[in-house]
Specification:
It is built from four helices and no strands. The protein is mainly alpha-helical. Helix 1 (17-41) runs antiparallel to helix 2 (50-63). The radius of gyration is 14 Å and the shape is elongated. The two termini are 20 Å apart. It comes from Taxus chinensis.
């Protein structure tokens, strides 16, 4: 059984770009903190390391680094949060993670 995820404050509409970027950074930190748990849940230690997963997550965040619209950033944060929740709640299969 997966350990419960830390309670997350639901992000509404960010009023400023700085606020939206803060939400994105919070999601990144939360995802990085959850990686050891995800590796354990899906038994990924024989396939990929935690640092490789962290690099993959960072590359996904960097891919959207040029977005300047707070509403678009909020939407990306929402989607990222859903993906993270699905991983932690074991709603995905191992091959979805790899």
């Amino acid at each position: 059984m997966a350990a419960p995820m830390r309670s997350v404050v639901t992000v509404g509409s960010s009023l400023t770009l700085e606020e939206a970027k803060k939400h994105a950074l919070d999601l990144y930190r939360q995802a990085c903190r959850a990686l050891p748990q995800i590796v354990e849940i899906y038994n990924l230690s024989d396939v990929i390391t935690t640092s490789e997963l962290r690099s993959a997550i960072a590359s996904q965040f960097r891919k959207h680094a040029n977005v300047t619209n707070p509403k678009v950033i909020d939407m990306l944060v929402f989607k990222g949060d859903e993906e993270l929740r699905n991983c932690i709640e074991h709603s995905k299969q191992r091959h979805h993670i790899i």
